[in-house]
Amino acid sequence: MNGFDQAIFDAMGRFAGKNPGFDLAVGQWVRAEIVGKGDVALALFWGVWFLPREPRRDRREVLIATAIAGALAVLAGRGIGLAFPFRLRPIHAPSLQFILPYGARDTALRGWSSFPSDHAMVWAAIATGVGTVAPIAGWIIAFVTLALVCLPRVYLGLHYPTDIVGGYLIGAIIAWAFTHGRARTTLARPLLALEERAPHVFYAAAFFASLHLADMFVQLRAVLRLIKGVPV
After folding, report:
1. Mapping DSSP to helix (H, G, I), strand (E, B) and coil, where does residue 225 land?
2. 128 and 62 Cβ atoms separated by less than 8 Å
3. Do 150 and 120 touch, CB atoms closer than 8 A?
4. How far is CA 184 from CA 131, 167, 188, 207, in A?
5. What domain range is 200 assigned to?
6. pTM of the prediction?
7. Using an 8 Å Cβ cutoff, are 77 and 116 in contact?
8. Within a domain: 93
9. Which of 18, 28, 107, 115 has the smallest number of CB atoms closer than 10 Å to its CB?
10. Which residues of 207-228 are buried (b: 16+ CB within 10 A; e: fewer)?
11. Residue 53 DSSP code
12. Measured between alpha carbons, how far is 217 from 213 in angstroms, rounded to an integer?
């Protein structure tokens, strides 16, 4: 294990297993999705979408490309996890002597590669794209992603810190590529045309897509696991 990961785990090890109430609260926070996987991010996304200031069309082009980048990050995260060498999660690696917090299950996500963090990838993509047109909203999403979504997963041994850093960088790069240049216009133009021509259809579809993006397509991934028999 590299020095960066080791330093973070050493720091967390001073707290893990010492305070049952705190450990159980962190575990419940992650399991119950108290802030949701993407509730805050998607709420801010739509708040920025409906900002009254101009240029509205350019802003909405960026946001559509951002949403597509976030959806692609879900697929990219699983693809990278399957294509790269398998990395045991800290909670499953005996050599790490990871200090298991109270209430944590050492069978959680067994069989799933640790790298990269798909949570970091998806919400880094959304934070980067939203931040392009609304920097404050982007920083809020980034803070929620790192402090309230990813860090508790490191504490519970579900990820190495470098899984988070790597996932965040990959997600940000995907969003940057999708929200700049001709890619943005190509992706957004047909959907903006639909929004102008048939807003009832566009917003119904957008509501449906937002629900699934907020939970990172967990239902669709469950169906794919049944069909393909692979961890997605």
Report:
1. helix
2. no
3. yes
4. 15, 22, 6, 21
5. 37-85+111-228
6. 0.87
7. yes
8. no
9. 107
10. eeebebbbebbeeebeeeeeee
11. S
12. 6
